[in-house]
Prior knowledge:
The complex is a heterotrimer. Chain A is an alpha+beta fold. Chain A is 24% helix and 36% strand. A six-stranded mixed sheet of chain A has the order 6-7-8-3-9-10, with helices on both faces. Chain A has a five-stranded antiparallel sheet with strand order 13-12-11-14-19, with no helix packed on it. In chain A, strands 2-1-4-5 form a four-stranded antiparallel sheet, covered by helices on one side. In chain A, helix 2 packs across helix 3 (109-122), helix 2 runs parallel beside helix 4 (138-151) and helix 3 packs across helix 4. Chain A is elongated and about 75 Å long. In chain A, 41% of the residues are buried. Chain B is built from eleven helices and no strands. In chain B, helix 2 (46-52) crosses helix 11, helix 3 (55-88) crosses helix 10 and helix 6 crosses helix 8. Chain B starts with a helix and ends with a helix. Chain C is globular. In chain C, helix 5 packs across helix 7. The interface between A and C is medium-sized, with 27 and 20 residues.
Amino acid sequence: MTKPAVEFRDIEMRFGDKVALSGVDLTVNRGDFVVLLGPSGGGKTTLLNILGGFLEPTRGEVLIDGKPVTGIPPAKRPTTTVFQDYALFPHMSVAGNVAFGLKMQHVPRAEQDRRVGTALAMVGLDHLGQRRIHELSGGQRQRIALARALAVEPSVLLLDEPLGALDMKLRRQMQNELKAIQKRVGTTFVHVTHDQEEAMAIADLIVVMNDGFIEDKGKPERIYLRPASRFTADFMGESNFIDGKVAGVSGSSVRVETPLGAFDIEGEAAPGAAVTLSLRPEHLRTDGGGDRSLGRASVLESGFFGTHHQCTAKLAAFEVPFKARLPQRETVTPGTEVEFSVDLSDIVLLTR
Amino acid sequence: MLRNLPSWLYAALIYGFIFLPVGVLVLFSFQDSRVPIPPFNGPSLRWYAEFLGDGRVTDALLNSIIVAFASSAVALVLGFLAAYALARHRVRFSSFWQGLLTAPLTVSYLIIAMGLLITFNALGIPKSLLTIGIGHVVINLPLCFAIVYSQMGAHQANMERAARDLGAGEWQVILLITVPMLWPALFAAFFLSVTFSWDEFIIAFLVSRFDVTLPVEIWSMLRTGLNPKTNAVGSFVFLFSVAIVFLLDLVLFRKKPA
Amino acid sequence: MTRTSPRFAPDTVRAWGLLFPALAWTAAFFVLPLVIMAVYSLWKRVGNRLITDVSLQNYENFFAKSFLFESLINSLEVTVLVTLISIILAYPFAYILAEKVPERWQRMALILAILPFWTSYLVRSYSWLLVLSEGGIISNFLLDAGITDEPVSFANDRSATVIGFVHFFVMLLTLTIYANLKQLPKNYRRAAADLGAGPIRTFVYVVFPLTLPGIMVGAFLTFVLCIGDYITPAILGGKRELLLPQTIMLQIERRSDFPTASALAMILMLVVSMVYLACARWLKLDRL
């Protein structure tokens, strides 16, 4: 039986009157790549700082490898951090930076050299050991920061928006590399970002945080396709929301009355409750093949995005225009009339 | 708190060292006897009355103020124009000119003073408040130039470009965009120059004759040994500088929303 | 420069127009005097006459006449001593200000710490005279404490000059070191702690090396300002030994010997330039 790598138990963090985190419970399994995702101010970086020992929570307990770490300073925790600005020491060489943690642990010199070499080779920069930090590009710095943090073989590696300073293309490339390195070393990674595409690309487990709470947690597919809350549905890409009321429940099917008529959706809700139906733009069909028609809509705006046309279209019976993705080869211009239909299994019933 | 006790003790010791002479200076300016050494009997304002009644000292005081403000104004205008030229126009050898304009910062005031003295003598220029002012512009121009130049960032450059794009001419750009955006730097440069000129001794001493500034007057007062009147004048000089520093602080930093 | 289109001409003229006044001032009242001094240093003064034969006589005299050369040695000794003592006193002080004083009090604490910095050399040196002279504060304190029976004087010797200088340069170095400490990104320290360094090793391996530039800048300023200052030694140092600026003033005031004074000034500038080059080289090497 293995203990989880990290456990947060009922964490609360207050800064004066401001509550930054409240009632956070989270278990991270060993070897998982966990992404804390959310808007800035959502509490994800605070949670990371609590795990790294840079902040002490005002309530609750953190366990790493099953052992409580309350009161243990960062230096003595089996965690290391890749900082957002990398925090590479400018007065040391690349190798000096990577060796720093080992030196602090009084690892013998020869062993240090060997492990520095391994760490640098892992990020593909073993030829740059003697360089100074200011001679490196942004992507190289990012890799060195990763090598430095991994050289001490931590139980948990913390990454604080490590890709934030990189341009889009490099960012996508580094995501793949991070994921590959994580799989190779098998270390538990806890990664903070506000980029939902990044989160989906790398995470084994996504934890969506908002306003100091955990909104949702689960595998990327689940979070995207079956979000647990309106916030998650909205944050994880675009969605159309239809407000309605539960008219009746039969078995696992819920009948929801909306301005667009009644929908029978799989899910759980109390009769009479106000609920929201969420529908991803790419699930709106114009080929007439869906389970249920939503009626005709008139296109207001449209833009060609390469893989698809991104449009907004107004249904006669619904006030807010719908966001839709229409196939690449279709001709769509403002004023075009389309017939929307949808598969009922694509609609998500949200109770909060 | 107690863990930091050695730190607080050390800080108190250094503060004590820093303020000891100034404290003694100010305290004994209120001395009621003829020597500014213990025991202290007072307080009395008689030495302040004496210095304010001394025509030589008040003349020197006035001279100091005139020289400080006039030379700082000239240094600021010249420094600003040069900074604007080098930051906003393509000029050949621009880093050389930059080096030349800041070079006086690395040369001792004594050498600058002596060079000016020899030059003025050689050219037959009579020593006066004007020559003191010329010298003070030499030491303050690099300061004004460096401060203003360092603040002329790309951000302002874009604003200026926008203004030009909207039809403003060169002088309109300078007066309506550059100066208002740079005013904290200009203000700081001007008043730093004022304090430097106000306190400067060696140039004022070597290139003056009958019209002297306050530090030169204090120098001649020193020849008579320790005297509470010197304390009173010195305290006044100190408080004037401190007032300017607090003014700078108040205007430049306090106004920003915290 | 491939663009030689006439569109550039007015711009260039305007730029030179803006730049000219400052350059002219610097050329006329800074460069020209230095050139004249350099020429003077090759001439000679005999009796009341200026001999315009070019020779290195003044420089030879500098090494030959012991009181001239000694004044440079005295100056170097005092300057190095002052720089070292000031760094040693200022560093912990700047560190306490930057690290231990609560954030909202820091600005006030710093302004206070460098307040006397803003008063003139002259007044500061005079103030130390009040403290150090016979019957002054310290003398009085020692009498009261029963440590001495007679009034004692600490003024008018090298230690008084050093104290006067250290007072000023502690403030200067506090400023440069404090600024350096404050601009260190917080994450450097967090990274060191994260990788297993305690407070002491974080300081030794990370904080201190990264504040060396602040120390160097402060030390350079200290050196330049200290070695060129006339006032402090003139008021506090007494007559027994002279520093280089005092010998220079002596040539000007007493003897009107501008050629010798000019040669001494050239030597002073040479020393400062060498220190400047050494510092610049060090700072540059550090960055590579």
